[in-house]
Design brief:
about 900 residues; ten-stranded mixed β-sheet; 24 helices; globular
């Protein structure tokens, strides 16, 4: 046929999909491994008018791991070759400056009317404005849509090349019936690379390890990435967990794009271990209870279509066994809360160009690309085949979402005066999720409470109502049947099947007091926008004495860091105080006196307040009638500390990245990353604060490293440890922290008595329960906790907890529980609540509730001129525990002020 080429997509080893007219023979060297050769039923004729990967990049599709810049070049070439059928969009820039793109592919009519399509999807998204009849008219005439997102984890490499293969097939297979059906009925959105920074890290390191031949040996350097691996982005976030807190630019841009077009089906394509096969819908249990049966059923239908193609091609696969749909912050769960059906696909990873499975089979990169390609086309076909049903189901989802929001907790009111910044952050975040958030322009009464002008409130009776409910309520329950099965498994000493965290209430994590009410307020309001800034407040700018910034939220926290970086002289109150018998200021409040600063102080104060949204009060007197005076020793001066943190093995890359992000991007303060092995011997005297994120430091630091850190602390340093680092510090061999880790509580003494001889007295085992007791390991850790939100009580009479509420929420994760520190060594400044109150949100084993109760969360231990501040959990997890940020700021800035100063470098 004129201007066409016919290609049989023969097998996973073939690179033939995007070569010009011949089937390329892959370079596979003979070895003991057996090739995976699987015939493909996909055949098509390809027009020469669409460029192949070979023509644009110089290599056949699937024969090489395409890097970010080459991926951009290829999609730009496709958009130039077929501007009537493909439209390319930029949706953001990564931290490292790389473009984030997606494309829309469909027939000419659908692409020409893409703006109208977006408008019509918005109309379908709101039954309050679009009647059933109007919706049906839209459904009869508009296309369906699918969003295919690839490689959110940068070292899950096949997705990007599969995206390129999929785009080429949709554009070049002009006479293929399946393709034409897809393009006539569906807009296919392709996000080819969700994590450019992580992929670049992977590809550069991978090809740097390749020698004369690619190795398929899992022991080779090619298959063992160095820290921090390519999975995460620049700040080392697992971005498949960032869809809830939306902290990273990649996530922000993607959510904005999806909210504009509202694709009906969203697929997140991943990789898993190389010895597995392929995973797709239906998902594993538990499902989030705020998803609908219709959404789940639609994914099952699409999964069955993929299964049909995989059966024809001889591809192994499995469903329902691993990846659940409970946490709403995944790429395959977040879209369900605007009405999409969504799923994760996982292909066995070659983690390079070749990989030998334990079976001896050779898995090639092209094989992984091919299976993602087949699943992508099968998904698009499933969406096209069920166009009207998916559109109708989407509209009905909005109808039922509005109705489901009319419950006891219909209205959520955000009016936390002690945490203005947290309330604002939560309100704008929900607006970013396309939730309708309102801000009152006048005071109002609701459910017996009076709220001032400026109060934020959210009505759950809206199209995004299910998202509101699942993120704003304190508790979302897993099904009783699932919980019963997990308890049964624990009783049999089997691992539980909980995949990720079980608690994620945003108000709890952000430390924002929220009221709920069934009644709807009658009040004038404006809608909150995602980019709405928190307005700074300055009272009495031309004050005679100075300025006080009340402590307690991150607006004040960022004011502090900006003031220190601006070179202002700043004091902070160790205790609360009353000025001139009139106004009470909380402990931790920042004091900036005119006499100690330059004449342009008012303009600097005004500028910083505008940048940070802080509340500033000008004062005309320094007369204090209760609490420490401004010149008191309990009003220490804060200096800008030099902050360092451990970086590289054996630090958890996630913990390191989250911590650095929180300090640099949420506190607006620089951090120096120091490779962990350097800490064994480095002269740290230039630093006032050193943070050890969660990690496993025993081998990396050892006794020599511990001694070096202790000497630095004794000289005046502040050492802050998180989770695994606290475990290292508590090891008696290193004696940094005077606490110990607990074993699991043993309520059933063994039927055997210990013996040094290697023999024990015989016993009679009469029943299965006695057998269970006899076989249990009694010198064991507490049971592992997948991740819950836990209530933490805070000492209110210590300078380190100044400005922190009496009760906060932290995460409880893992199996490490620590003893309280003795009073002769230090002080427990925050601890988990009582057994009946410790669980704030999620599911926690009863044994864990008992053992965790009253155990320390935050420990302070003086040491020489310095101190150790230990967190038994991670306060920076996923950068979504905003309610702990003031505690961490105190640990850095206030602690540095209370330690005897080390030398400063200016």
């Amino acid at each position: 046929m004129k201007n066409t080429k016919r290609i049989n997509l023969r097998n996973a080893l073939s690179a033939a999909l995007m070569v010009s007219s011949v089937v390329a023979t892959p370079l596979i060297h003979a070895e003991t491994a057996t090739s995976i050769v699987q015939a493909s039923t996909v055949q098509a004729e390809y027009t020469n008018q669409i460029p192949t990967v070979q023509q644009v990049l110089g290599y056949a599709s699937g024969s090489k791991i395409t890097n970010h810049s080459d991926m951009i070049r290829y999609f730009e070439a496709l958009s130039l070759a077929a501007p009537d059928r493909v439209k390319l969009f930029d949706y953001g820039v990564t931290w490292e400056g790389r473009r984030l793109i997606y494309v829309a592919i469909s027939n000419k009519s659908n692409i020409d009317n893409l703006d109208s399509f977006a408008e019509n999807m918005q109309r379908l998204s709101d039954p309050r404005k679009t009647t059933e009849k109007q919706a049906q008219e839209l459904i009869d005439n508009m296309p369906s849509s699918v969003w295919l997102g690839y490689s959110v984890h940068g070292n899950e490499i096949s997705g990007t090349d599969a995206a390129m293969r999929t785009a080429y097939h949709l554009l070049a297979a002009s006479n293929d019936k399946t393709v034409n059906k897809i393009l006539d009925n569906t807009v296919v959105f392709i996000d080819p690379l969700q994590n450019p920074d992580g992929r670049t890290r992977f590809t550069s390191r991978y090809y740097a390890t390749v020698g004369l031949e690619h190795s398929s040996d899992r022991l080779s350097a090619e298959h063992n990435e160095p820290w921090p691996r390519g999975r995460s982005n620049h700040y080392l976030f697992d971005m498949n967990r960032d869809w809830l807190a939306v902290t990273q630019p990649e996530t922000k841009g993607r959510i904005a794009a999806i909210n504009e077009f509202r694709p009906l089906v969203v697929i997140d394509l991943h990789e898993m271990g190389g010895d597995q096969s392929y995973y797709f819908a239906p998902a594993a249990k538990p499902f989030n209870p705020h998803m609908t049966d219709t959404q789940v059923a639609n994914m099952n239908t699409i999964g069955a279509n993929i299964g049909k193609y995989f059966d024809q091609d001889g591809y192994d696969y499995f469903t329902r066994e691993i990846f659940d749909a409970f946490y709403p912050g995944y790429g395959d769960s977040w879209p369900t809360f605007y009405g999409a059906s969504a799923s994760t696909y996982e292909v066995s990873s070659s983690r390079g160009e070749r990989y030998t499975k334990t079976t001896g089979e050779l898995l090639t990169y092209d094989n992984t690309v091919q299976r993602h390609f087949v699943a992508s086309i099968a998904t698009a076909e499933g969406v096209a085949d069920h166009r009207k049903k998916l559109l109708n189901d989407y509209y009905q989802y909005q109808v039922t979402a509005i109705e489901s929001g009319k419950g006891k907790e219909r209205i959520y009111v955000l009016n936390d005066e002690l945490n203005r910044a947290g309330s604002h952050r939560l309100a704008t975040l929900m607006a970013q999720h396309d939730v309708e958030v309102k801000q009152a322009t006048e005071s109002f009464k609701l459910c017996g409470n009076t709220y001032p002008t400026g109060t934020y409130f959210i009505d759950s009776a809206q199209p995004k109502g299910r998202f509101v409910t699942t993120t704003m309520t304190e508790q979302v329950n897993m099904s009783e049947a699932f919980i019963k099965e997990q308890e049964r498994r624990r009783a049999r000493n089997l691992n539980d099947e909980i995949y990720d965290v079980t608690g994620w209430s945003l108000p709890l994590m952000f430390g924002v007091d929220v009221d709920s009410c069934k009644s709807v307020p009658k009040v004038k309001y404006t809608f909150v926008t995602p980019d709405q800034k928190l307005k700074g407040q300055v009272e009495n700018l031309n004050a005679k004495v100075g300025y006080i910034i009340p402590w307690g939220d991150m607006a004040a926290g960022r004011f502090l860091t900006h003031a220190l970086k601006a070179g202002l002289t700043v004091k902070t109150a160790d205790k609360s105080f009353t000025l001139d018998g009139k106004q009470r200021f909380p402990a931790g409040s920042i004091v900036i006196e005119k006499r100690q600063n330059s004449k342009d102080l008012p303009s600097v104060i005004s500028s910083i307040a505008a940048q940070t949204g802080a509340k500033v009060i000008g004062i005309d007197t320094s007369w204090v009638t209760d609490g420490p005076s401004l010149g008191s020793g309990s009003m220490p001066e804060l200096t800008a500390p030099r902050v360092a943190m451990a970086w590289d093995e054996p630090v958890s890359s996630l913990s390191a990245g989250h911590t650095r992000f929180v300090i640099e991007r949420q506190f607006d303060y620089p951090v120096t990353a120091i490779r962990t092995n350097v800490l064994r011997y480095a002269d740290l005297s230039n630093y006032q604060v050193l943070i050890l994120p969660h990690g496993y430091y025993e081998n990396a630091l050892g006794k020599g490293g511990a001694d070096n850190l202790k000497q630095w602390v004794k000289n005046g340093g502040v050492l802050i440890t998180f989770a695994g680092a606290t475990k290292f510090a508590s090891n008696p061999d290193y004696a940094i922290l005077d606490v110990q880790r607990e074993r699991a509580v043993n309520e059933n003494p063994s039927v055997y008595k210990d013996s040094d001889s290697g023999l024990v007295d015989g016993v009679v085992i009469k029943n299965r329960e006695t057998l269970k007791v006899a076989t249990e390991e009694f010198d064991k850790n507490p049971d592992f906790v997948a991740g819950v939100l836990a209530n933490v009580e805070v000492d209110q009479e210590h300078w380190l907890t100044a400005g922190i509420k009496p009760n906060v929420v932290g995460i409880a994760y893992g199996s490490d529980i620590f003893t309280p520190i003795k009073l002769n060594s230090g002080k427990n400044l925050a601890w988990f609540s009582s057994e009946d109150k410790v669980l704030a949100s999620g599911y926690l084993w009863e044994e864990s509730k008992k053992q965790l109760a009253y155990k320390p969360f935050l420990i302070h231990q003086p040491m020489g001129k310095g101190m150790v501040i230990a967190y038994t959990q991670e306060p920076t997890t996923r950068a979504y525990l905003d309610g702990l940020n003031v505690m961490l700021m105190n640990s850095i800035f206030r602690a540095a002020a209370h330690a005897s100063p080390l030398k400063q470098i200016h």
